[in-house]
Amino acid sequence: MQLHQKQSRGEKKRRFKRRKDEHVLSNVLSLRISDQEKHELEKITKTSSKSVSEIAREALEYWLSARRRYCLNT
């Protein structure tokens, strides 16, 4: 459904899960990715039921933990 179209009566309204106050994330990170990377992310979101933000946070945490493991973090 496009943003400017009105919701039809038979169509269910989309509901988004809201985070509890103690889990509110307020920092925003913007990055540029290739079309291929975007396509891969879209495939992952469809198969995993995770948002792009969740996937990016998971990837960042994985990278940070690997960096800590190899003592490269100064």
What does this 3D model show about the protein?
By secondary structure, this protein is mostly helical. The chain has a domain at 36-74. The protein has two helices and no strands. It has helices at residues 35-48, 52-69. It starts with 34 loop residues before the first helix and ends in a 5-residue tail after the last helix.
**How far apart, in Å, are the first and last alpha carbons?**
48 Å
> How big is the Rg?
17 Å
The number of helical segments is 2
Largest sheet: none
Content of β-strand? under 5%
Query: What low-confidence regions span 5 or more consecutive residues with pLDDT below 50?
Result: none
Question: What's the total number of strands?
Answer: 0
What structural keywords apply?
74 residues, mainly alpha
Topology, please?
Elements: H1 35-48, H2 52-69
Task: Describe, in short, the structure shown.
The chain is mostly helical and 74 residues long. The protein is built from two helices and no strands.
